[in-house]
Write a structure and sequence with these properties.
This protein has 377 residues and is of the alpha+beta class. The protein has ten helices and 21 strands. Helix 3 runs antiparallel to helix 4 and helix 4 crosses helix 5. Bound molecules: adenosine-5'-diphosphate and magnesium ion.
């Protein structure tokens, strides 16, 4: 029994309160009187369960969403879009070491240990999964699962999701949610007023990219739907003046060649923002700006830290934190990252969004990160 209930929709019925529709999993049992909680620990007692008639297009009863009505035991509606039976029912899944399947990938050792202090953890082989095969190792898990590891292309995540689902492990973000925040075209429309103006094509083609540059002027950066080559700033990322076709072509072509088969989606061009510079990267020499990484969990700020520097004091004002909180509430996924940067004029912009499962901790301490899953309330 997975007992992970994904909220599809919620709406108010006069006199009856909010009805939540959830995906009807034939394996899950839900009865009047059951207590569920959201990922922030708010509790709900089920006071009504019905098949949801509004969905007349569904023929198969097993596919028809369930409508649930709740007594709000903590006085608030559900945050995020997942309900589980207890906050203890959270598990973590990491990549195994490529050579030693029963060991964690070295890069994630600190996280694995920190997560293991409180939560059941298991491993899987990333290289096998790249070939479509799920090989699990370690504890047998079932129920709500949070992956922490290397990025996956959306197709790989979809296969990963469904193979885990067959074994009763439900990843926190559905494949649609993953793609929406992992790829720039997925989230751009929703947040474009707060981020660098961007255009893209979907082939990874230099010709298409050059076609897009027509009529543009000034500095830009190039990336794909997910990643830049920021550490090759002057060769494969920063375009000094996009109207200089020859130079723009060289940078974009370097980017495409060096990304190779890792290129995700297509080419994205983003107008360069004038960011507050705080120095240069000690290894790559790329300019560093005042930037923050924020993990959002079930609609709330989970943890926030400076992106580049350890023990840097955070200079976000109360109003800025409120603004971030409001953005976090809008996110239609249970676990994402928001990267912010400060412009020279002092305003804050969104640099990019990402799926929380495949975003690095940057300067955040693993112990603090994992502790936060217990004290969401
Ligand atoms: N439009 C932009 N204006 C100014 N700086 C940018 C812009 N886009 C990216 N950068 C700089 O390059 C870095 C990498 O860009 P980002 O979009 O976050 O790609 P990645 O996914 O590789 O981290 C950012 O952290 C920021 O410092
Ligand atoms: Mg980034």
């Amino acid at each position: 029994m997975a007992d992970v209930f994904r909220i599809l929709e919620r709406f108010k019925i006069t006199g009856r309160g909010t009805v939540y529709t959830i995906k009807n999993n034939r394996h899950d049992n839900i009865s009047i009187g059951d207590i569920l909680c959201d990922l922030q620990g708010n509790r709900f007692r089920v006071k009504g369960v019905e098949m949801f008639r509004r969905y007349m297009k569904y023929v198969d009863l097993d596919e028809m969403p369930l409508g649930l009505m709740f007594e709000l035991l903590d006085g608030v509606e559900a945050k995020g879009n997942i309900l589980i039976r207890s906050l203890e029912d959270i598990h973590f899944l990491f990549c195994s070491h490529p050579l030693y399947p029963s060991k964690v990938d070295e890069e994630y050792m600190g996280e694995y240990q920190a997560a293991g202090l409180k939560y059941p953890c298991a491993l899987f082989n990333y290289e096998d999964m790249e070939r479509g095969k799920l090989t699990l190792n370690g504890e047998e898990l079932s129920g709500l699962t949070i992956y922490r590891g290397w990025m996956m292309k959306p197709d790989m995540y979809r296969a990963f999701y469904s193979q885990l689902e067959q074994r009763g492990m439900i990843l926190i973000n559905s494949p649609e949610e993953y793609e929406r925040y992992h790829t720039l075209p997925g989230w751009y429309e929703e947040f474009k007023e707060y981020t660098a103006e961007s255009i893209w094509e979907n082939q990874g083609s230099l010709d298409n990219a050059l076609e897009m540059t027509k009529g543009l002027e000034g500095p830009y950066i190039v990336k794909d739907y997910v990643k830049s080559r920021k550490h090759e700033w002057y060769d494969a990322c920063f375009i000094k003046n996009i109207a200089d076709r020859e130079n723009a072509g060289k940078i974009i072509s370097n980017f495409i060649q060096r990304q190779g088969t890792d290129l995700v989606g297509g080419i994205v061009l983003r107008r360069l923002e004038d960011l507050k510079c705080i120095g240069f990267h000690e290894k790559s020499g790329m300019p560093l700006s005042e930037e923050y990484r924020i993990f959002v969990y079930a609609g709330k700020i989970h943890i926030l830290d400076d992106y580049w520097k350890n023990n840097q004091s955070i200079t976000l004002s109360d109003d800025e934190r409120k603004w971030i909180g409001a953005i976090a509430e809008k996110i239609k996924s249970n676990f994402v990252t928001i990267d912010l940067a400060r412009r020279t004029d002092g305003t804050i912009i969104i640099m990019e969004l990402g799926d929380g499962q495949v975003s690095g901790l940057q300067q955040i301490k693993a112990e603090n990160f994992y502790k936060r899953f217990e004290i969401c309330k």
